[in-house]
Specification:
This protein is 36% helix and 16% strand. By secondary structure, it is of the alpha+beta class. The strands form seven sheets. The protein has a six-stranded mixed beta sheet with strand order 3-7-8-6-5-4, sandwiched between helices. Strands 1-2 form a two-stranded antiparallel sheet. It is globular, with a radius of gyration of 21 Å. The two termini are 29 Å apart. Residues 14-39 and 356-379 have low confidence and may be disordered. The structure holds adenosine-5'-diphosphate (ADP) and magnesium ion. Magnesium ion (MG) is lined by residues 79, 200-201, 214. InterPro entries: Kinase-like_dom_sf, Prot_kinase_dom, Protein_kinase_ATP_BS, RBK1/2/STUNTED, Ser-Thr/Tyr_kinase_cat_dom, Ser/Thr_kinase_AS.
Amino acid sequence: MKYLRSRSLKRLFSMKRRRFDEEPAKDGDGEEMMGRCDSLKVGGVVEGCFQKPTWKCFSFEEIFEATDGFISENVVGRGGYAEVYRGKLKTGEAIAVKRLTKACTDDERKEKEFLTEIGTMGHVCHPNVSSLLGCCLDHGLYLIFQFSVRGSVASILHNEKLPAMDWKTRYKIAVGTAKGLHYLHKGCQRRIIHRDIKASNILLTDDFEPQISDFGLAKWLPSQWTHHSIVPIEGTFGYLAPEYFMHGIVDEKTDVFAFGVFILEIISGRKPVYESHQCLHSWARPLLNQGDVDKLIDPKLTDKFDDGQMRKLAFAASLCIRVSGTWRPTMSEVLEVIFDDHVDEERWKMPEEEGQGEFWGFEDLESECDSSIFTELSV
Ligand SMILES: Nc1ncnc2c1ncn2[C@@H]1O[C@H](COP(=O)(O)OP(=O)(O)O)[C@@H](O)[C@H]1O
Ligand SMILES: [Mg+2]
């Protein structure tokens, strides 16, 4: 484990130093290591050039002081392997400190995930991706982020005590998340597959701009690889693409599927898994196929939504949750569907036999829900 940590960190810090050099850093294959800052064409709109990320090493004293000694009152979130604390730097900046839980500090895999998160997030820079301020490696492993005042989409959308989220906010979240995911897949030098797109991993800024966070499971795929096979299967049940949980196959379409489920969550206000093992996508699929979008819509929205936007998002979701990854759109295509005023639905028609196979294949999979494979999965 010591070897893993020192080798990974050495590589990481050498990359950070290079960030400020004139020449772009090259890896072993002569490829640039930096996140590319090309402008991206998104739904006919050219998105601006994003700045290169910068982050620093914090001292333990700094983050200890900022979080009032990691008091439990400052805990804002707990995930699979970390606790997240609210904090305030001497400069007044609000931060979130993610600490690898003590129980996981001897777990090599968890430590690797933590380092993966530093490595990946240190390279990304986009308004819809959470930005890493730095890390601390004394007395444990810590990641430091800008603090998201509003928490995650899950904490607002599914909070019965809060008023229902309005349509304008839901639409903004859907579009921003699509742009962030498109950037990860296409805007970085390396293709980044997030692998855990879900409502509790989408944080919100003060003005409800969504930011994709939690890169613990993220993978970088070399450009020449079509996909990657992964064991064990990790992620969140209800968002998992069938080819991933059956065969461990990971590529951009894994995230596209999860994004489709996320859109359904936003439209319907339902959780991705409800009433024991009932999946949101299995409930929504026949309704979408029959064009019964109205039955999907969150009753709490009453009639206060933009019908055109709703229909486009529902159509995009229907494509994203297709069982066959080949028939799912890329994130560029998702953005086209969302923004295009005249979506050519014919273009997305699947051959008859693909459509039929889809339904059967998936229902079969769902009956496997409580098999041991899910011991690795969280809900
Ligand atoms: N930057 C942040 N600002 C505010 N809350 C955060 C921030 N980062 C994480 N959280 C909260 O902590 C929870 C867990 O964080 P996450 O990074 O997803 O950890 P895990 O990998 O353990 O799931 C999130 O769902 C969110 O509620
Ligand atoms: Mg998380």
